[in-house]
């Protein structure tokens, strides 16, 4: 019984969006489940997929909180 956890930032995937849509989550669940069936022969009814939306401020990248890292990159830094 595989359990797969997908973590995404709670910022959505486009301007003005603050979350991943239910349709996008359904596609992620279907795609990951199908991948496990194709690669590991795990039946769909035995596969569990958990999607966790994490506040952007709770992510780090390159030793910095993501918002700060993005500010620096936008300003031409690291």
Give the uncertain stretches in residue-range form: none
| SS elements, strand count | 4
CATH architecture: 2-Layer Sandwich
Radius of gyration: 16 Å
Distance between the termini: 41 Å
Quaternary organization: single chain
How are the strands of the biggest sheet laid out side by side? 1-2
Helical segment tally? Answer: 2
Content-based structural category: alpha+beta
What is the CATH T-level topology? Macrophage Migration Inhibitory Factor
Helix content: 25-40%
- CATH H-level superfamily title: Macrophage Migration Inhibitory Factor
Indicate the mean pLDDT: 90
Query: What is the 3D form?
Result: elongated
Write down the CATH class: Alpha Beta
Order of helices and strands: EHEEEH
- Largest sheet properties: 2 strands, parallel
Could you characterize the architecture of this molecule?
Keywords: Isomerase. It comes from Inquilinus ginsengisoli. InterPro entries: 4-OT (IPR018191), 4-OT-like_dom (IPR004370), Tautomerase/MIF_sf (IPR014347). This is Tautomerase. The chain has a single domain, classed as 2-Layer Sandwich (Macrophage Migration Inhibitory Factor), CATH 3.30.429.10. 36% of the residues lie in helices and 23% in strands. It contains 2 helices and 4 strands, in the order E-H-E-E-E-H. It has a two-stranded parallel ribbon with strand order 1-2. Strands 3-4 form a two-stranded antiparallel sheet. The relative contact order is 0.22.
